[in-house]
TrEMBL record:
Annotated source species: Roseofilum halophilum BLCC-M91
Catalytic function, reaction form: ATP + H2O = ADP + phosphate + H(+); Couples ATP hydrolysis with the unwinding of duplex DNA by translocating in the 3'-5' direction
UniProt name for this protein: Replication restart protein PriA
Residue ranges occupied by any Helicase ATP-binding domain in the UniProt entry: 317-484
PROSITE patterns per record: HELICASE_ATP_BIND_1, HELICASE_CTER
Keyword annotations: ATP-binding, DNA replication, DNA-binding, Helicase, Hydrolase, Isomerase, Metal-binding, Nucleotide-binding, Primosome, Zinc
Gene from which the chain derives: priA
EC class: isomerase
Gene3D superfamilies assigned: P-loop containing nucleotide triphosphate hydrolases, PriA, 3(prime) DNA-binding domain
InterPro entries: DEAD/DEAH_box_helicase_dom, Helicase_ATP-bd, Helicase_C-like, P-loop_NTPase, PriA, PriA_3primeBD, PriA_3primeBD_sf, PriA_C
Length: 841
């Protein structure tokens, strides 16, 4: 059990009650001033680390409150720490003179009390040390660590160098080759073999010294600003013509300009401006510049008159006070975003802030533009692609508590907004809200729910294709309210969806990856000057095996999931495995259903599709939109803008395309082979397939021209395909729930996944076996499945195995400590825990 951690967390939680009312109002010093503080040190070890509290003394002039971020001496280093609790007496077992002092307060008031409780809840539920959760929530670099560095001392007698041992000589060479004669010890160790031996030699001779450089937490960026302070016309003898010219430039700019800009615009030097300051015409001041996301403002828009369904949804949301979760289930293009915007407006007006979570950055530009158009500068964007400085500034800005709307991805659920009045998760079904590695393996929806509870505010989960969890809670479980927008606005029809049977295409001699029907539509795109999207459902290496003649898919007889093909090496026997229970069989030479010899491993990539397009339709202009082409910072925005502006006829890409794109010109949506989604080899495959296909189909016909969707597949009769074609999401989910119940999958159980990986297959397998044995012997309330290889067994040379635990619904997740389990594994095998896993790859 992770009992030590639990105990600490209890104590940390109970301290909360005693904390100040709000971190933004510092308590006035009481008569008996506490002179000691217990802190949590950012002590960098694996998660087995004991989360001990350490006591430090406070010097007279230092004001510290719980939740402040401090810098403290720890061993030989200077580390970041968080103040947990103030003491008015030192601990009895520690002589006061041995207690070290807090060095400085890096940042005050970082943790509002409810925020602190949230972090504790995350740590407990996801079985992660609190410090690790804190580190993830904070902007990077804030909890700095001091660095050991080596530098040359003043005098080194050249002649004596020959007596040095070889590593010492090499160290000396490296150091003298640098301008400053100063390097980090880490760097030197990488440059020189046996560097430790060399260093000892050099230290003994006192030719170098070793020192600790204190951490450098991010600092606010400051810039010089020049402000005009005298507004009279200068007497001719008072200023030179050049000086007068500078004042005119300054005046034209509104009287206040950044020094750098003024220098450029007035073609002058800073000396001249300083003279003007001496003459008291201007002042030069340092001002803080926030490095927050700056974007051109889109045109202002105003609230739209709502449709009856939108009105009903909005009234339901506004009709309740305090914490309550809502599912806003609106088909694609039904106007969910307009409901969000109108739900936000009054809350913002009351002086509260709003948190909006979205799945992916690719989607944010369009959405943020719509929010900016409505709310102007009150919008902040917060996500992990910001630079460290930008993140730090956005944090500090949020802490000031001005009412605002923060839009961000998964990690923004930890944005430290005080006075939170509403949380919205758009596309709440999206699996990118779940972190599968590293710990804590949190789901932003779960964390958002806790947060809304702590803040006592509403939570809106919006989607055209709600997750099973939310479907269940707003249906059978009745813990949230389901609101529906069943029609597109302005009576736009949903596009018709045609299913193309690829088995028949093969039979009729078409070996291309495009059916004849899809080819016809692609050809017409160019003629009609319309735009299309080609979607390639592919996730990593797809590995299931199916029959190209009858569409039969080989499945595990025990787990109701498809079997995976694992490529190990050239010429290996072709075995198929279940990566839940490890059932395996040889790949048959003929289809067990129809005896056809055409059994096929699945997988078609974007590249192959674009090549084929170039061959068949050289006149179509194509943009590839996948993880390869969208790697750079603004690539998403740039590619989409180019497409929206009509620079291409066709957007070809993977999963990323499915997320909320609203491009009016798109009439055609083609799915190259849906089968990659249907047989993912895990229990969520069906749910995810319907979600993705419905979402991608919803990209067609959002403008004035009607759309057409073509889904190609070898399994046209699959339940998921049928549900998508008939727009029968609710029916599908109800059937799916029954299947989940029959096989005890979530929400009728809770899952915990142990992931093992390492370069040596035997070591990984042995570790997994040992851990499974211990888990079996404990006989908790769980069932142990596996060990079995992960769906993609080998990733960048590492072999991956896993064990799945199934708990009864609502059961307490009690597990042996990770530290204990890790001690059963070879040091070269890594073991990670995933609570409520969604990704079994
Ligand atoms: P969803 O988020 O459900 O996919 P959107 O909010 O993007 O739907 O709405 C689709 C389109 O309809 C958008 O262009 C939006 O501006 C427009 N729209 C939404 N609500 C209304 C309304 N009440 N009246 C007119 N147009 C609307
Ligand atoms: Zn067959
Ligand atoms: Zn199985």
């Amino acid at each position: 059990m992770i009992s030590k951690l639990d105990r600490l967390q209890t104590s940390v939680t109970s301290f909360r009650v005693a904390a100040s009312k709000s971190p933004f109002y510092r308590e006035s010093p009481s008569p008996a001033k506490p002179r000691w503080v217990e802190v949590l040190v950012d002590y960098d070890r694996q998660e087995v680390e004991d989360q001990k509290l350490y006591t430090y003394a406070l010097s007279q002039n230092l004001q510290v409150q719980p939740g402040d971020i401090l810098s403290v001496p720890f061993g030989r280093q200077q580390l970041g720490a968080i103040a947990i609790r103030l003491l008015s007496e030192p601990p009895a077992d520690l002589p006061p003179e041995r207690i070290k002092s807090v060095q400085e307060v890096i940042s005050a008031g970082f943790f509002p009390p409810s925020y602190w409780q949230l972090l504790n809840q995350v740590a407990t539920y996801y079985h992660t040390p609190l410090m690790r959760v804190i580190r993830m929530a904070l902007p990077p670099g804030l909890l700095g660590k001091s660095q050991r560095r080596i530098r040359l001392t003043n005098s080194i007698p050249t002649a004596a160098q020959v007596f040095l041992n070889p590593p010492a000589q090499q160290l000396l060479n490296v150091l003298t080759s640098s301008k400053t004669g100063d390097y980090s010890w880490r760097y030197l160790k990488k440059q020189v073999r046996q560097a430790q031996r060399g260093l000892q030699d050099l230290l003994k001779r006192q030719w170098v010294e070793s020192y600790l450089e204190p951490p450098k937490p991010p600092r606010p960026k400051r810039q010089q600003v020049v402000t005009l302070v005298k507004f009279t016309v200068p007497e001719p003898e008072e200023l030179t013509p050049r000086q007068q010219e500078i004042l005119r430039v300054l005046g034209r700019q509104g009287g206040e300009v950044l020094m750098t800009e003024l220098l450029q615009q007035a073609q002058t030097s800073s000396g001249l401006i300083k003279t003007l300051e001496q003459k008291q015409w201007v002042v030069i001041e340092e001002q803080e510049q926030l490095r927050t996301d700056r974007h051109p403002m889109p045109d202002r828009d105003t609230p739209k008159p709502l449709t009856p369904a939108q009105t009903e949804a909005l009234q339901a949301i506004q009709g309740r006070s305090g914490y309550h979760p809502f599912l806003l289930h609106g088909i694609t293009g039904s106007g969910k975003t307009e409901v969000y915007l109108q739900a936000i407006a009054p809350i913002l007006e009351q002086g509260q802030s709003i948190l909006v979570l979205v799945p992916e950055i690719g989607l944010t530009p369009q959405l943020t533009d719509r929010f900016r158009a409505r709310f102007g500068a009150k919008i902040r964007v917060y996500h992990s692609a910001l630079s460290d400085g930008e993140r730090y500034d956005t944090w500090r800005q949020m802490l000031q508590g001005t009412p605002q709307i923060v839009i961000g991805t998964r990690s923004a659920v930890f944005a430290p907004l005080p006075h939170l009045g509403l949380i919205i998760l758009d596309e709440e079904h999206d699996t990118s809200f779940k972190q599968s590695q590293p710990a804590p393996t949190y789901h932003a929806r779960q964390v958002a729910q806790w947060r809304a509870q702590l803040e006592n505010c509403p939570l809106i989960l919006g989607s055209a294709t709600p997750s099973m969890e939310t479907w269940f809670s707003s249906g059978l479980e009745k813990t949230s309210t389901r609101l529906s927008l069943p029609e597109r606005v302005e009576n736009r029809p949903l596009p018709p969806i045609a299913i193309v049977d690829l088995r028949r295409e093969l039979k009729q001699g078409n070996r291309s990856i495009f059916s004849r029907s899809l080819q016809d539509h692609l050809r017409r795109l160019g003629d009609l000057q319309q735009q299309g999207i080609l979607f390639i459902p592919r996730r990593g290496h797809s590995t299931f095996v199916s029959c190209r003649s009858c569409g039969h898919v080989l499945e595990c007889p025990h787990c109701d999931v498809s079997l995976s093909y694992h490529y190990t090496h050239e010429g290996a026997t072709e075995r198929l495995r279940c990566h839940y229970c490890n059932f395996s069989q040889l790949q048959p030479s003929h289809c067990p259903e129809c005896q056809s010899p055409y059994l096929k491993h699945f997988g078609t990539g974007t590249q192959r599709v674009t090549q084929e397009l170039a061959k068949l339709f050289p006149e179509l202009r194509v943009i590839r939109f996948d993880s390869d082409t969208t790697r750079t910072k603004n690539a998403h925005r740039t590619l989409l803008t180019r497409f929206v502006q009509g620079e291409a006829d066709l957007l070809v890409g993977t999963q990323m395309l499915t997320k909320g794109l609203d491009i009016p010109g798109v009439t055609l949506v083609g799915v190259v082979a849906a089968d990659g989604l249907l047989h993912q080899g895990d229990y969520r495959a069906g749910e995810e397939a319907v979600q993705i296909l419905t979402q991608v189909a919803g990209r067609a016909g959002r403008g004035d021209d009607p759309g057409q969707v073509i889904i190609q597949t070898y399994s046209p009769d699959h339940r998921a395909i049928q549900a998508v074609q008939q727009n029968a999401y609710a029916t599908f989910m109800e059937q799916e729930l029954q299947e989940r119940e029959a096989y005890h999958y979530p929400p009728y159980s809770s899952l915990v996944l142990f992931r093992f990986s390492g370069l040596d297959l035997m070591e990984v397998q042995t570790a997994a076996d040992r851990v499974a044995e211990v888990l079996e012997s404990r006989a908790g309330s769980y069932q142990v499945l596996g060990p079995a290889p992960a769906r993609v067994m080998r990733v960048s040379d590492a072999y991956r195995w896993q064990i799945l635990l199934k708990f009864p619904p609502g059961a307490e997740i009690d597990l042996p400590s990770l530290g204990e389990l890790r001690s059963l594994c070879s040091a070269r095998v890594s073991l990670h825990l995933d609570i409520d896993p969604l990704n079994f790859g």
